Known about the structure:
Elements: E1 8-10, E2 13-16, E3 19-22, E4 27-30, E5 41-42, E6 46-47, E7 60-65, E8 69-74, E9 79-84, E10 90-97, E11 104-110, E12 113-118, E13 123-128, E14 144-145, E15 147-152, E16 163-168, E17 174-184, E18 188-199, E19 202-205, E20 210-213, E21 219-227, E22 230-237, E23 242-248, E24 255-260, H1 262-267, E25 277-282, E26 288-292, E27 314-317
Parallel strand pairs: 3-20, 6-10, 10-14, 15-19
Antiparallel strand pairs: 1-4, 2-3, 5-27, 7-8, 8-9, 9-10, 11-12, 12-13, 13-15, 16-17, 17-18, 18-19, 18-20, 21-22, 22-23, 23-24, 25-26, 26-27
Amino acid sequence: MRSRPLAVVVLLVAAALAGCRSAAPPEPVGPQAWWDPSDAELLTWEADRPSFQQEFALEASGLAASDRFLYVASEKYARVLQLPVDAPTTARVIEIAVPAHSELEGVAYGGGALYLCDEAHAVVYEVPLPAGEALPDAGVATALPATELAIAGADIQPGKVGVEGIVVDAAAQRLWLLLERQGTPETGCVSTIFRLRRSGGRLEEDGPPIEIVLEDCDWRLTGLELWRGELLALKTQFPGERYELIAIDPESGASRTVLELTDLLRSVRREGWHNNVEGLAVSADGTLWLVSDNAWTVVVDDPEPPKSHEKTLLMRIPPTATTR
């Protein structure tokens, strides 16, 4: 798959009373190739539950990687899919014991546990995994327990266009929580990243939030990853179908575009894949992974997803030689 040359951009940041606020949207200044869109691969998995194949409306909003597995959050169905990172052709479907009508928009891995952010309830859940990330046999109907971690200080409200991504450090002591978008066309819109620190069974603010100024209110940030000391986020526009990957300094909030994905992700729709990418992860070898949310629903009471007219996309982009 071929795409336009990518560009790196620099964003000057100024401190604001509400936190670290980017001064303006990023401006391109030159090329840097961490990943090459022409190397992208579309992957197909076989799930151990038929209704969690890619042709079903999984609403796959979050993605995380451990050293051994990928984890895909199925937003409305209290499930996470586990796929081997070295051969992601099979998927184990894990039930998570979260409240009814949860919306699991983001997933992170750290310290032997999964961390899920729930947009409907504006909370974070911790889900310890068995030793070695070994799951019960597929026929064992046991939901993994989830513990809510209270968020102290941060003003996060439940509802649509809410918490959209989460990432943790390796020890799961520091967390970053992404608020997709807030503001109005009159005041301007920003995406906000809350810096949090684990303190026992709750999360406390660990400095002022980072605000990324958006060009207009059709843009948003979705998905969050921590790689080489920087935060990575998906920046998407709808309507318009424009897609970028940006890097954010977790201390200053300065951001720059590191990968242009628009041409690539527009092209996959011709093959029946949904291109609303909302989840990203980078595995230990530097491979970039993307997953798409292929449905839009409000409240779901059905236990499993229905068929969809477009497939859930799972994309792999290996690192360039200079990135390894």
